[in-house]
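Note to self: keep these together.
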Amino acid sequence: MVLSRRSVIASAAGLGAATLASRPAITAPKVIRQTGSDTEISFWHGFTGARGETLQALVDGFNALDTGVQVTALPYGSYEEVAENLVRALGDGTAPDLVAMSEALWFRFYLSGSILPLDDLIASTGFDLEDIIPAFRAEGQRAGQTLWLPFSRSTPLVYYNRDLLRAAGLDAFPASWAEFADVAPSLTNTDTQVYAIAQSTIANLVAWAFQGVTWAYGGAYSDGELNILIDEPGAVAAGDFYLRSIEEGWGYASPQGNQDLGNGFAAATIASTGVLNDTSALAEATGFELGTAFLPSAEPGGPTACPTGGSGLFVVGSAPAERQAAAFAFLTYCLSTETTTTWAQSTGYMPVRTSAIESPAMLDFFAANPNFRTAVDQLPVARASDTARTWVPGGDAIIATGITRILVESADPQEVFSEVASQLEVEAQPVRDQIIALEGNLTTQGTPGAIPAATPAATPAATPVAAR
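Structure:
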């Protein structure tokens, strides 16, 4: 089943009517109830188009409830625009109360002391933190505090054209990049301009998704103490694989990988779960069966891992206490089992609660949308992005530029990543100094990327990759 934009918006809008009517009431914190009138808060986010309309429907549904809180949402064109405007607003006293910020941007606001630790509000309201999926929950915790809670979360997947793979004698996408490289020539037809894989150069995707390939080859961008590792053998081997796809002619650099796949120009690409609905619609219009798979291992039987991505919510530390409590009330609504279920089904992002994944509504949705289930089943090997990408200002762009040079210029991966490492090192040292000044050391959080306890699969026995 492919969700149309009309059905997406109608589904979200239903939160304001029958769906909300069946929910337990959301009780406003005591500080709000004592005021005797509604507390108005502002909420900044970076969702536009159909997702922006869906989110506004969620806001409207919340405002229709008797919570004592009214939310005004202000959309920007991207997470980066939100961050740029927030820096200015924090300086002139016009900051919002609640912000949706990407996993690559929120940490700098923690370092500047702009984020309210949520632990007291979690304790006083009974918010069920343990139900938040562990890999997502841990990503927003630092120095024993919960600062940023997951909202629109995603992981990269392999998207592939099942029809093209079947024609090449494959029932599913290969489980390793080595096996894929062996069959890639048979998936390529230069006469019809169809290639085995579109290697995406999409901004904000390339450096994020390449982490999974790097980890599969035993490398990393950096470690938990922000030591830069991207110029070491593992990451270089991943770069060599990307370069091989270009030099052997079965891969190409694409600024729109999922669209190329959807339009029939590539047999596969790596893209976010967040574009699943759009890619499914393209595949249906083009007339082929879309498949999804875990990010492969480097060699057969090797380890796999994928990075988590997307946005989370934080409360601004400079807001008055009453508005902070009100912002948390809306945050609680956004992260409820019912809302995260509806948001996931409407947008292609993943539910952020175990109770949502295990709910009848999501299990029915998985049955009707097996490609969506792939992302949830991949969560046990999900890990937070490397610190060089998320802690270092501009780190994502620095890494992405290097990867793009390999794909577009056929540049030598060792030379490129040595240059990237030098750039990252310059930018990383001030961040290390800030962390030490704030926390006393660089290891308070533990090692970023570690998998923090088992994450539930969609069913007790997850479908193997080969069956997807």
